[in-house]
Amino acid sequence: MSPRVPGPETPSGVSLPRIRRDRHGRGMRGPLAPAGSPLAVSRAQRFDDLVIGAVERLDRRWQDQLAKVEFAVEDVPALDDWDRTWVPLARAYAGTGALPARVVVFRRPVETRATDPSKLRALVGDVVTEQVAELFGVEPEEIDPAYGGRDLP
Question: Which domain holds residue 58?
Fold first, then answer.
């Protein structure tokens, strides 16, 4: 961070802070990509959009049941109560009391397993389908007929 030096005084005699520029005279730079361009969207936001798309696709067939389910994305799972040797891609939590049922998709483990954007989209769709199927106690193929038929890594 650049040091602050006293700036010009205002008519009331108060000195305003002035930010020094770097030694090349450029100072703070603006964003690298314009706000509307694809480069301006973060990987996390793109992943969130994939999860939303997968949920919307399932919502067409299971609207009433999915209205009672919350979906979330976390970067990595908390493995405090996890007793297996593999890292989960998502977890489904049944509703208890006032808390609704919840599906949490873990972004980093899913991204690590996909080699390109189309495979990532397919993997996210299958992961969301598996978790919804687990919540409803049915097979994933019943939730989404396209389950498993997509090109996965």
Answer: 43-143
Burial class (CB in 10 A: 0-12, 13-18, 19+), 64: exposed
Collapsed DSSP state (helix, strand, coil) of residue 117: helix
Task: Write down the residue that tokens 């450029």 correspond to.
Answer: 26
Give the three-class secondary structure for 14. coil
User: Is residue 51, in this structure, part of any structural domain at all?
Assistant: yes
Residue with tokens 């007793």: 83
CA-to-CA distance for 92 and 88, rounded, in angstroms? 11
Is residue 72, in this structure, part of any structural domain at all? yes
Q: Measured in Å, how far apart are the chain's first and last C-alpha atoms?
A: 44
State if pTM tops 0.85.
no
Domains of the chain: total: 1
With respect to residue 36, please indicate whether it lies within any of the assigned structural domains. Answer: no
Q: 62: domain CATH number?
A: 3.30.2010.20
pLDDT tens digit sequence for 22-79: 556 666 556 666 777 777 678 888 999 999 999 999 999 899 999 989 999 999 988 8
